[in-house]
Design a protein that fits this description.
The protein has 241 residues and is mainly alpha-helical. Helices cover 39% and strands 5% of the residues. The chain has a three-stranded parallel β-sheet. Helix 10 links the parallel strand 2 and strand 3. Helix 5 packs across helix 11.
Length: 241
């Protein structure tokens, strides 16, 4: 990995992370790193790959660990669960926007938050239930939720920081394991809590202190997970004005 490419990867990173991540990136599998640099046909791209690390290192309080970037160029932002194709959360009739419904994991994360704040009941989270729930005081734009999260110390991280659509996903995710393990150990030492969602995320449990472990948000069981909704209730200010 050349210094030029390394600096490009680190461009969106907060200064407090730069030396730490520089070392971790230099330890990536050499062939994998060379492939990333030589062929830019991967998501979310070098300029956004490390976008989650805009949060100051000492401020991290929560790490919602996703799986990998969305497999669509307009959607992959470098932040776990944020879909760049989604702007407004709701349609004018109160239902979730079409783009939200397309992003299953994001949709169920939002529904879990609605359950956590008492706007929906477990087992009653259909499109009609969302339309009929109380929308007063809810954030209307998706980006605001993720901005509020970052301001509150949420490091929206994926287990795999890159995705090449022509290759199998699991081996690509494994290439990032050393870096992600190092990050989770580091923030656990300052008291941050990881949300390990799904089978790829669960493998990082040994690196965390008291992680919240759940099924992946793409599964409906996520919305009914009491540990998830109890935790999200503590952070209701991310979705409420």
């Amino acid at each position: 990995m050349t210094e030029e490419f390394l600096n490009r990867l680190l461009q969106p990173v907060h200064a407090s992370w730069r030396d730490f991540l520089r070392e971790q990136l230099r330890n990536l599998d050499e062939e994998f790193a060379e492939t990333l640099e030589a062929d830019p046909a991967w998501l979310p791209g070098a300029d956004r790959c490390l976008a989650a690390f805009s949060v100051p290192r000492s401020d991290v309080r929560v790490v919602p660990l996703g799986e990998s970037p969305y497999p669509r160029e307009e959607s992959a932002t470098g932040l776990s669960f944020q879909d760049g194709a989604v702007h407004e959360i709701f349609r004018c009739d109160g239902r979730l926007a079409v783009e939200v419904n397309r992003a299953t994991s994001l949709r169920n994360l939002l529904k879990a938050w609605f359950v956590a704040t008492g706007r929906l009941a477990v087992g009653q989270t259909s499109s009609d239930h969302v339309r009929e729930m109380d929308h007063v005081g809810l954030v209307a734009g998706l980006n605001e939720i993720f901005d509020r999260g970052r301001q509150s110390g949420w490091l929206w991280l994926n287990a795999g920081l890159s995705l090449r659509l022509t290759q199998t996903r699991a081996p690509q995710i494994r290439m990032w394991e050393p870096l992600v393990n190092a990050v989770l150990r580091d923030v656990s030492d300052i008291g941050a809590r990881a949300m390990l969602m799904g089978r790829f995320a669960e493998r990082f449990e040994p690196a965390c202190r008291d992680p919240l472990v759940s099924v992946h948000p793409r599964r409906e069981g996520f919305v009914a997970d009491r540990d998830v909704t109890n935790f999200l209730r503590l952070w209701r200010h991310l979705i409420e004005i």
